[in-house]
Amino acid sequence: MDLLSIIVIAIGLAMDCFAVSIAKGMAARKFYFRYALRTALLFGLFQGLMPLIGYLAGISFAETIAVIDHWIAFVLLGFIGTKMIVESMREKNGSKNGQETTRTEDIATLFSWKILFSLAIATSIDALATGLIFVPTPEWTAVAFSIIGAVSFLFSMLGMWIGATFGKRFRLNVEVIGGIILILIGTKILIEHLLCG
Description:
Layout: H1 3-28, H2 33-58, H3 62-90, H4 107-110, H5 113-130, H6 141-166, H7 174-196
């Protein structure tokens, strides 16, 4: 594991937050800094905590994982990436996790703690499994989980601004991009271990 790989993984995981934040910004039709900050803080917090939970759960069988860690990384990141791509394709005409809203919906309700909390959990579930990847490299955990949380925070803020500014004109499928990124980094980890092993 290296810093570049961690950053790439963080960007891939942040794509869910990015997509949901864009949709929230589109629904609000205006950039509300306090609500954007609330959204980004929750998304970043959960994206950083979920891998930590996965990591702590995986420590108990670290020796077993060490033998096949590269395969675990490849399978997990490949699965998560593929899942993101498939879900994105299924949701072309719908909304994800209730982020789409009507014109008359109250902004405070749109960004209520309850709704954002549920979205934060939903968008960070994939990051839970990612924590297992860091079991063989405990020295990277603090840095990795901090970077994952920070990147998700930044992408959420950016997503809110893009959604509010460009609205329906924004057509880039960020979840597909995120899925591809995760698949590629998983493949990179596998190839590196096979060549070095």
